[in-house]
Amino acid sequence: MVLTSQGREALHRATPGHAALVKRMFFDGLDPSLLGPLHTALDQIHEQILARGTLPRPCGPHWTATDED
């Protein structure tokens, strides 16, 4: 399977709106004290997916909890 240049452009156009929706739906109303434990849980889930799944380990810089929006 290959992502065409048109598909890549559509993905890039959709990404900001999708990210804003996810932020609004999942994180904007979340109690700030839950962000740390949630981040830890999601990191562990991500590691399990990489260890047991078929996704390759990403390379390059990644978002962390200390990064700015």
Structural class of the helix and strand makeup? mainly alpha
Q: What gyration radius follows from the Cα positions, in whole Å?
A: 15 Å
Low-confidence stretches: 64-69
Q: Report the principal-axis shape.
A: flat
Distinct helical segment count: 2
- Counted beta strands: 0
Strand content bin: under 5%
Order of helices and strands: HH
The helix content is 55-70%
Gap from first CA to last CA: 32 Å
Largest sheet features? none
Quote the average pLDDT.
86
Topology, element by element:
Blueprint: H1 5-27, H2 35-52
3D structure, described in words:
The structure is a single chain. Helices cover 59% and strands 0% of the residues. The protein has 69 residues and is an all-alpha fold. The protein has a domain at 8-52. Residues 64-69 have low confidence and may be disordered. It is built from two helices and no strands. The longest helix is centred in the first third of the chain and has 23 residues, at 5-27.
Keywords:
69 residues, mainly alpha, 59% helix, MarR family transcriptional regulator, WH-like_DNA-bd_sf
